[in-house]
């Protein structure tokens, strides 16, 4: 361990550092929670709102043919042939429903579990996971976002925000010391910075938050685990299987990160806002999604990690059954699909149902808070747990969500 | 050209729209006036008296007055978006006149940096960081810059922005005047509901878009209100100005114009519901009856002197910019269920702002001269919302401020820094919360090891370090010069001693690079405090 810490190792510098360390320690537990089926979670975020009837909820007479899968009740669109092979692992919720048809609001809802409310900045799901089951002094960040944008930690503080990996093909930026700086010199700098911080006597939580972030950054720089970010270490056949795309590489990196103890990884596939040219664009996107998601499931399964890794694939809403004049489909929050796998989810099932058009939910509607409560429960986080925000407001981990038992093993 | 629209008899800013009780629908003029405009504009002392009364009532002991160096750094960051030049700090500290803070505020408001900084501010608020294709960002910024530089009345330029027509960009094929403001419409051309929602939120502090999909039991605005408001934008369209250069790479010029009837929304289901709505302002004002185009009528209505929301919203926003927290938080949400702290003060400031001719510089000058603005960031008691600005709310430097401050402190060439910069701040497009940018480990790594930092601390022609080291004299003077450039104050004796020891026993160049590295990575540099 060559990592330097602002507050340990060198003896405590001052009251602020001591307080900070205690605050950080008191805040999170690193042990897996009792009753948790999943230790980690991978979210594949399909940004823009995928057309459910052209992907996970195909309808008779639709533009894309429906194909059989390894689950009796589950049919998928023809452009997801490899995923069909993993039908027995999937729980496809076809009855997601909300009232938020605006991208920003819906993205907020699907990242935090709450409808935007101007008086509070809700933490994103990844920030909750970091706080509740993340390691206290992780070498790697607890929450990593690949090919973003993601969403911030809200009132939980900067140290629970996502670590952003812009391009999974590259090592994270700036983790290596500049050429002219060796370890001894870096440590001298660090020591001098620590002294400078100790003299700056404004006792504000924002400062301790920033110092905690610097600690994390320094730990990451010195971690032998950094090699995890190098996907070139994977055999070529494996890399090929995921697909030669940013998203494919991101999914492969997500698997490597979870193996190394990262708690939540989000990988973004953008472009699903198909107001125009819906079919061509959705077909192409499935060409990217299909190899990446199916390889991820196959590898997690082969490495005995699927049972302890919850995989979620979703976007912010569905799209209209109606096709507009530009061969597109518009926003449709009344009904859409979300796909779950692994992490104690009972695979091979379809949950909920839409009408023949895909316009309305007709069986077992699933609200966003209930989806979130299901996810947190699998990770051993009590969905009813309350936390006090800095201005003294109690905020629940979920918005009074109730977990859906039928989805669980 | 500063407007001289000082006092218009009978200026009224209606009350009763941000807090307490049901709001009368119908013409605004019917609601109760707060107070008539006064011939004399407000003075900072009036604000101070009210703040003191509020602290007394709450039993709060305000923080101490911030020292000169602290004040000077802060006011430079808030009014010009970057740390002061070292020479300016020296001059300010040496000035013995009693009114030097006032003079500094005036000088900053008169400096070109003011317009540059607030162009950045409004650009971020209005356009966000992810500007869609074909928006001519440069033309938009040029237009904004002109409004701020000339200190055009806020009502005038908002009216122009909301109703802007004309060419968004200079076409290749013809000499045509461009109206940079029209890019605001272009950004939202495919999405009138978002344009309506954003217009209402930014300029009125009313989040009417919450009612886009359904009515909320607890909130005042209904779907039908939102549809009426959105309908005002449906008769506007943006058309490619020249269809003759299909292959043109880069920007295309669009012509934004208002039609006589709602444009054909080509069967778009999501727009259809708005077409049947009659264009209406928030208070029910019919926007078709006046004979002008509905969008123009809306812009007129928004900026009318008796509009109860408009002046309040900007005063609240600017109070948030200067004092770290608006009367209502977030600054663009003045709903009744989110009542402002010190409502009377907000109302008085709003009518004063109208009386000043919507003079943004007057507003900022007033705020910067208050006692509350000039307190330290060390609370003596309560923190947060209940503390009534009894201490200064510190904040991390936002992306633009950080970059500009780095450049000023180190003499780094701008273009080199900018290329490396944008990915750090994965800012939410619609997001006003600079303190919330993601990727903070990323940012820390960038500051510690990134190329920009390496360049900032190297000894190269024109760099801060080269200049400082070329001066005669001992380490003490050089340490002081670097402190003045970065944390805008002289070092204490203890600090000087500490660094002199640090510098001993290692190569000069290395020692000084590390000293500058520490200063630029310190919380004292990275926060506005």
From TrEMBL, chain A:
Domain of life: Bacteria
InterPro entries: Alkaline_phosphatase_core_sf (IPR017850), DUF1501 (IPR010869)
Name by which UniProt lists this protein: DUF1501 domain-containing protein
Organism of derivation: Pendulispora brunnea
TrEMBL record, chain B:
InterPro entries referenced in this protein's UniProt entry, alphabetically: DUF1549, DUF1553
Domain DUF1549: 46-237
Pfam families, alphabetized: PSCyt2, PSD1
Every DUF1553 domain range: 295-419
Superkingdom of origin organism: Bacteria
PROSITE patterns per record: PROKAR_LIPOPROTEIN (PS51257)
Membrane-spanning ranges: none
Entry coiled-coil feature ranges: none
The protein's name in its UniProt record: DUF1549 and DUF1553 domain-containing protein
Species assigned in the record: Pendulispora brunnea
């Amino acid at each position: 361990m060559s990592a330097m810490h602002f507050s340990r190792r060198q003896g405590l510098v001052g009251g602020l550092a001591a307080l900070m360390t205690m605050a950080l320690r008191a805040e999170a537990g690193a042990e897996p929670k009792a009753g948790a089926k999943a230790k980690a979670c991978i979210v594949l975020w399909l940004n823009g709102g995928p057309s459910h009837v052209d992907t996970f909820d195909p309808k008779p007479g639709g533009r894309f043919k429906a194909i059989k899968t390894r689950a009796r009740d589950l049919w998928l669109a023809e452009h997801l042939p490899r995923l069909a092979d993993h039908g027995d692992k999937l729980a496809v919720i076809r009855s997601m429903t909300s009232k938020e048809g605006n991208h920003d609001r819906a993205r907020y809802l699907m990242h935090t579990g709450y409808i935007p409310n101007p008086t509070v900045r809700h933490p994103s799901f990844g920030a909750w996971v970091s706080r509740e089951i993340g390691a206290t002094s992780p070498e790697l960040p607890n929450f990593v976002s690949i090919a973003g944008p993601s969403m911030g930690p809200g009132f939980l503080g900067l140290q629970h925000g996502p670590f952003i990996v812009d391009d999974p093909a590259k090592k994270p930026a700036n983790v290596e010391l500049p050429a002219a700086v060796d370890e001894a010199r870096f440590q001298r700098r660090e020591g001098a910075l620590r002294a400078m911080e100790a003299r700056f006597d404004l006792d504000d939580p924002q400062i301790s938050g920033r110092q905690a972030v610097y600690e994390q950054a320094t730990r990451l720089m010195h971690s032998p685990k950094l090699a995890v970010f190098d996907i070139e270490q994977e055999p070529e056949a494996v890399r090929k299987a995921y697909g030669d795309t940013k998203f494919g590489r991101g999914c492969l990196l997500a698997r490597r990160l979870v193996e190394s103890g990262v708690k939540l990884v989000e990988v973004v596939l953008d472009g699903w806002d198909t107001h125009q040219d819906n079919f061509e664009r959705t077909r192409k996107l499935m060409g990217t999604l299909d190899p990446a998601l199916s390889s991820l499931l196959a590898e997690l399964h082969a490495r005995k990690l699927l049972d302890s890794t919850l995989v979620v694939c979703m976007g912010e809403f569905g799209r209209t059954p109606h096709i507009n004049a530009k061969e597109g489909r518009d926003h449709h929050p009344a009904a859409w699909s979300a796909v779950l796998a692994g992490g104690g989810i009972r695979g091979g099932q379809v949950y909920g149902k839409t009408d023949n058009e895909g316009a309305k939910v007709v069986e077992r509607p699933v609200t966003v808070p209930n989806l979130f409560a299901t996810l947190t429960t699998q990770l051993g986080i009590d969905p009813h747990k309350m936390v006090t925000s800095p201005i003294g407001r109690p905020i629940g981990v979920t918005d009074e969500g109730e977990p859906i038992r039928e989805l669980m093993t | 050209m500063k407007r001289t629209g000082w006092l218009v008899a009978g200026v009224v800013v209606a009350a009763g729209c941000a807090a307490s009780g049901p709001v009368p629908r119908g013409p605004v003029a019917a609601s109760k006036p707060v107070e008539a405009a006064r011939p004399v504009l407000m003075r900072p002392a009036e604000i101070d008296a009210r703040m003191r009364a509020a602290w007394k009532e709450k039993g709060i002991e305000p923080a101490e007055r911030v020292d000169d160096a602290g004040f000077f750094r802060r006011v430079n960051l808030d009014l010009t978006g970057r740390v002061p030049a070292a020479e300016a700090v020296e001059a300010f500290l040496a000035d013995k006149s009693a009114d030097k803070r006032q003079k500094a505020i005036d000088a900053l408001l008169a400096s070109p940096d003011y317009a540059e900084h607030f162009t950045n501010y409004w650009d971020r608020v209005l356009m966000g960081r992810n500007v869609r294709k074909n928006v001519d960002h440069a033309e938009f910024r040029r237009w904004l810059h002109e409004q701020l530089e000339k200190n055009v009345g806020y009502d005038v330029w908002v009216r122009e922005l909301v109703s802007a027509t004309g060419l968004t960009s200079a076409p290749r094929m013809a000499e045509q005047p461009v109206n940079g403001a029209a890019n605001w419409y272009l950004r939202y051309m495919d999405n009138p509901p978002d344009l309506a929602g954003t217009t209402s939120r930014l300029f009125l502090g009313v989040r009417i878009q919450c009612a886009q999909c359904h009515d909320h039991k607890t909130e005042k605005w209904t779907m039908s209100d939102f549809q009426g408001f959105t309908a005002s934008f449906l008769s506007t369209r943006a058309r490619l100005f020249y269809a003759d250069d299909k292959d043109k790479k880069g920007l295309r010029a669009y012509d934004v114009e208002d039609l006589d009837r709602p444009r054909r929304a080509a069967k778009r289901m999501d727009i259809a519901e708005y077409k049947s709505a009659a264009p209406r302002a928030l208070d029910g004002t019919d926007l078709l009856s006046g004979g002008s185009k509905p969008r123009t009528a809306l812009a007129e209505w928004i900026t009318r002197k008796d509009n109860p929301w408009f002046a309040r919203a900007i005063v609240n926003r600017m109070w948030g910019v200067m004092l770290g927290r608006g009367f209502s938080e977030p600054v663009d949400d003045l709903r009744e269920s989110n009542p402002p702290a010190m409502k009377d003060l907000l109302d008085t400031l709003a009518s004063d702002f109208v009386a000043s001719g919507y003079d943004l510089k007057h507003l900022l000058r007033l705020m910067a001269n208050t006692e509350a603005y000039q307190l330290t960031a060390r609370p003596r008691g309560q923190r947060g919302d209940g503390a009534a600005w009894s201490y200064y709310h510190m904040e991390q430097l936002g992306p633009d401020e950080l970059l500009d401050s780095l450049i000023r402190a180190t003499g780094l060439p701008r273009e080199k820094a900018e290329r490396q910069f944008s990915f750090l701040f994965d800012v939410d497009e619609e997001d006003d919360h600079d303190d919330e940018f993601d990727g903070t480990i990323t940012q820390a790594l960038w500051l510690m090891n990134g190329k920009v930092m390496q360049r900032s601390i190297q000894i190269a022609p024109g760099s801060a370090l080269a200049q400082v080291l070329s001066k005669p004299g001992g380490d003490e003077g050089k340490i002081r010069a670097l402190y003045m450039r970065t944390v805008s104050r002289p070092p204490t004796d203890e600090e000087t001693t500490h660094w002199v020891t640090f510098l001993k026993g290692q190569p000069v160049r290395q020692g000084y690079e590390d000293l500058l590295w520490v200063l630029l990575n310190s919380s004292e540099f990275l926060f506005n405090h």
